[in-house]
Amino acid sequence: MRTTAVVIGAGQSGLAMSWWLAERALDHVVLERGEVANTWRTERWDSLTLLTPNWQSRLPGHGYEGDDPDSYRTMAETIAFIERYATLLSPPLRTHCPVVSVRSASSGYEVVTEQGTWQCKAVVLATGAFNVAQVPALGAELPAGLLQITPARYRTPAELPDGGVLVVGAAATGAQLADEIARSGRDVTLAVGEHVRAPRTYRGRDIQWWMDATGMNDEPYDRVENLNRARNLPAFQIAGYPDRRDIDLNALRAIGVRIVGRAAGLRDDTLLLSGSLRNVCELADLKLNRLLNMFDEWAAAHDLDRAIDPAHRPAPTLVDATPPLKLGLAKSGIRAVVWATGFRADYPWLQVPVLDRKGRVVHDGGVVTGSPGLYVLGLPFLRRRKSTLIDGVGDDARDLSAHLCAHVGARQAPEQEEERAAFQRR
Ligand SMILES: Cc1cc2nc3c(=O)[nH]c(=O)nc-3n(C[C@H](O)[C@H](O)[C@H](O)COP(=O)(O)OP(=O)(O)OC[C@H]3O[C@@H](n4cnc5c(N)ncnc54)[C@H](O)[C@@H]3O)c2cc1C
Questions:
Q1: What is the DSSP string of 233-271?
Q2: Which of 67, 235, 256, 289 could, after both became Cys, cross-link 172 (CB 3.0–4.6 A)?
Q3: Ligand 1 atom at minimum distance from 37 CA
Q4: 299-329 pLDDT, tens per residue?
């Protein structure tokens, strides 16, 4: 089979790219190994709600239509939202069509699937940034009787064995799971490394309102001082609960979660903990205050001080005078470990040499390096801070679709030609 472009994946990224390719009248197909919104259906825990408020899901040609813009969607609502997008778009979509290989070919690429082979000039990898939950090498050393689980497999606290639970990692996922498991009545210990503390609301506005209004979410990738670091930062320590409560370390401690340092090693049955807990907490507080200062300055500059609540600062993170450096797993009654230690993208089917030694696609703002006609979408800080958000992928897809059309030599309307030229000037 022949087409001009193959888009792999029918999550928000693949669908947004399809929207833009259709807008530019470019012949393409979207290939999805499962159903539309497959990752939201199969790889998220039951109680997860979006971190982003309803209003913040502006996809090209589709946005929030309900009457509760400030709430946070459940998984069922998120799936329904993306399904509705696909229905409106009616893209050239093949579901249950796993791509098993992508290779370079004389005229572009050959994409092999379980439903046949496509020859095309361009390929868009829209297969997600969070395919594999990462588990540190330490996982292999833990006692066999301990249940180890990642957020991709975790569903509810009821599925964990009776007894204490160690959650490793305190970004959004780890903090949310520590909160949920502790509230189910378990003893929870949270091992904390570098994290990004943030309040759910500040001065009466959602943190995402601030990120959006101040332009932080739109910050472009080519103006960031340390892009590699920005691309690897942990997610804000927030949740989208109806009561908008915080889930920072002070909030977790208040519901009985035991806060300890980063899990650094194992000796027999004893987990060795890093002595850096105080430092990482002070650093997180410092960065939080810097962020809030920036919001305050922006509010003052925009004459908002009287329209919103007064500025304030959250209490510093409480840290025990002498945090433990060891944790006896059996002695502490720990029966399960939840690894909330990050995710990574995975491309086992990609047979084009564009991965670095860590298996990451090498790209410049989504244009894959050294393989003309190959694009990637939906990765952290791909083109903007908001690139992995539902709200962010539309702008990236617009930019990359302009580049793709130019690459395949598709004729564009004059305003689209201008867009492409602007892209190349940046
Ligand atoms: C725990 C968690 C919470 C999040 N919460 C939010 C939030 O609150 N708000 C927000 O805006 N964002 C959130 N995100 C980030 C982001 O919106 C999601 O990760 C989203 O799923 C990314 O969409 P995507 O289309 O880029 O990738 P995915 O949704 O992962 O879609 C990729 C698609 O590619 C398909 N695929 C993969 N390999 C193949 C193959 N070989 N052949 C064919 N198809 C393939 C998959 O089945 C999948 O459907 C969250 C992410 C995580 C991990």
A1: PPPBS----TT----SHHHHHHTTPEEEE-EEEEETTEE
A2: 235
A3: 49
A4: 999 999 999 999 999 999 999 999 999 999 9
Res. 227: pLDDT tops 90: yes
- The span from the CA of 53 to the CA of 57, in Å, is 8
pLDDT of residue 425: 46
pLDDT at 200 over 90: yes
Closest atom of ligand 1 relative to the 113 alpha carbon: 42
Backbone torsions φ then ψ of 302, nearest 5 degrees = -105, 15
Pairing status of strand 363-364 against strand 367-368? antiparallel
Q: Which ligand 1 atom sits closest to the C-alpha of 49?
A: 8
| Tens digits of residue pLDDT in 25-67 | 999 999 999 999 999 999 999 999 999 999 999 999 999 989 9
**How large is the average pLDDT for residues 4-31?**
98
Compute the mean pLDDT over every residue in the chain, rounded to the nearest whole number.
Answer: 95
Closest atom of ligand 1 relative to the 35 alpha carbon: 49
* Residue nearest to ligand 1 atom 30, measured at CA: 128
Q: Name the residue of 30, 33, 177, 211 to mutate for ligand 1: max ligand atoms within 8 A of Cβ.
A: 33
Q: Give the H/E segment covering residue 407.
A: helix 393-408
Nearest CA to ligand 1 atom 12: 389
| Triad 161, 319, 135: Cα angle to 5° | 40
Given a cut of 60, is residue 426 above it in pLDDT?
Answer: no
Closest CA to 122 of 342, 373, 364: 373
- Strand, coil or helix: 372: coil
| Candidate from 42, 51, 127 with most ligand 1 atoms within 8 A of CB, to mutate | 127
**Phi, psi for 58 (deg, rounded to 5):** -90, 100
Whole-model pTM over 0.85: yes
Entry field: residues in the chain: 426
- Residue 260's identity, in one-letter code, is V
User: What residues line ligand 1, using a CB cutoff of 6 Å?
Assistant: 8-14, 31-34, 38-40, 44, 50-52, 98-99, 126-128, 130, 173, 343, 349, 378, 388-391
Atom of ligand 1 nearest to the CA of 15: 25
Query: What spacing in Å lies between the alpha carbon of 136 and ligand 1's midpoint?
Result: 22
Give pLDDT tens digits for 79-99.
999 999 999 999 999 999 999
Distance, CA 221 to ligand 1 centroid (Å)? 20
| Centre of ligand 1 from the C-alpha of residue 48, in Å | 14
